[in-house]
Design goal:
By secondary structure, the chain is α/β, with parallel strands linked by helices. Helices cover 54% and strands 13% of the residues. Helix 9 crosses helix 10.
């Protein structure tokens, strides 16, 4: 299955949710008028693109449709997908050029954070990279066990401490092990639940200091994993984590399980952070690189 087909499959529920509205708009399309634009804005809001972004998008469509004399549904669909793609932050992929490089993975419990780490590890080991997992979520015993299973499955190493240990100590030991073993990438799990935002900021800051102190010249990706099915709550989480850590990218999971896939566009646009990967299924192959143009094209296909 090609990338575009995976995007289409991942957006199936979203398209079913907004499809009748969009189909109605396109089926009766004669020319761009205010009634049609109002209906289009409502359909975008229903897909969780967000009221402000939907309004901005429709305003831009109004201008360009008049300027370029849009007169077919195909042209309108192409224009819509182009405008929305431009609203998103461009994805330049994972930057992992140093040896070792570091990926710090953040997210609340239940979003698929540990599974995402396993899938990324699987991808990297298949590319021939030597990967080491750091079991930094020491507050939840099952997290280290789950990560160990993924490590065995994909051929990655793992560094873990006892439950309740200092997460930053795990990161320190993992970096030391990576240097000694000649690893290419260290992927760090983090706690999905801390007592308050101040604790969250303090812990993330401490972990980042350890990474920068031990690997001052390393490429570091700080990825936030979000569950697409939580809709606007995912945006709230993203805003909180972005305030606590300098996010370099987003991973949107369970996109195939939501009727509101526009949340990916909404969050990237609002935070000016690229969506780097999206999950559209259970297997490692279903964690795919995000391409804004292909995504928005599939959105309206």
């Amino acid at each position: 299955m090609g990338l575009f087909e995976k995007f289409k499959q991942g957006l199936k529920k979203t398209k079913e949710n907004t499809g009748s509205a969009l189909n109605s708009i396109f089926a009766t399309f004669r020319h761009v008028d205010e009634d049609m634009l109002d209906e289009l804005e409502e359909a975008l809001i229903a897909a969780d693109i967000g009221a402000m972004l939907a309004c901005e998008t429709v305003d831009e469509v109004r201008k360009q449709a008049k300027l370029n004399k849009i007169n077919s549904r195909e042209e309108l669909s192409a224009l819509m997908s182009s405008v929305l793609a431009e609203k998103m932050t461009a994805n330049d992929g994972l930057k992992l050029t140093t040896k070792p490089s570091v990926i710090i993975v953040l997210g609340v419990n239940g979003v698929g954070k540990t599974t995402t780490i396993g899938k990324i590890g699987t991808r990297l080991t298949r590319e021939g990279k030597k990967v080491l997992f750091a079991a930094g979520d020491t507050f939840r015993a099952a997290a280290a066990e789950q990560l160990s299973i993924w490590a065995d499955r994909c051929g990655a190493g793992i560094v873990r401490h006892a439950e309740g240990a200092d997460p930053s100590a795990v990161i320190f030991d993992a970096i030391s092990a990576a240097k000694a073993r000649g690893c290419d990438v260290v992927i760090c799990d983090t706690a999905g639940r801390l007592h308050n935002k101040q604790n969250l900021m303090n812990e993330l800051s401490k972990m980042a200091r350890v990474v920068r102190r031990e690997l001052p010249d390393a490429d570091v990706e700080t990825l936030l994993v979000l569950d697409a099915t939580t809709g606007q709550n995912a945006l709230v989480q993203a805003e909180a984590f972005n305030a606590a850590a300098e996010l370099t990218g987003l991973v949107i999971t369970k996109l195939d399980g939501t009727a509101k896939g526009g949340i990916a566009i909404n969050i990237s646009s609002k935070l000016n952070v690229p969506v780097k990967l999206i999950g559209v299924g259970e297997t490692a192959e279903d964690l795919i690189d995000f391409v804004p143009e292909e995504f928005t094209k599939a959105f309206f296909e």
